[in-house]
Amino acid sequence: MEWLWYLLTGLGGLLAGGIAGFFIARAWFKNYLKKNPPVNERMIREMMRQMGRTPSEKQVRQILNSMNQVK
């Protein structure tokens, strides 16, 4: 009967740890995305302007598509 208590306690601990880990990881990932947003069209245009180029819409779309394929 004592082994049943250990088994239930262990399973309860695993379940509680899994739930807590999920919410901690979710909060960490939201904070990470807030500090480091994914690349969008505006960012690509700005990077190309900083390099001294004026990008066309086609170039911006090509770069964005190539970046999305890598993911």
Q: What's this, in brief?
A:
This protein has 71 residues and is an all-alpha fold. It contains three helices and no strands.
Annotation keywords:
single chain, 71 residues, mainly alpha, 0% strand
Protein described:
This is YneF family protein. Belongs to the UPF0154 family. It is a single-pass membrane protein. This protein is 82% helix and 0% strand. The chain is an all-alpha fold and 71 residues long. The mean pLDDT is 91.
Give the oligomeric state of the chains in this entry, treating copies of one chain as homo and distinct chains as hetero.
single chain
- Bin the helical content: over 70%
Major sheet summary line: none
Structural class: mainly alpha
Distance between the termini: 51 Å
Mean pLDDT: 91
pLDDT below 50 for ≥5 consecutive residues: which ranges?
none
Instruction: Give me the count of strands.
Output: 0
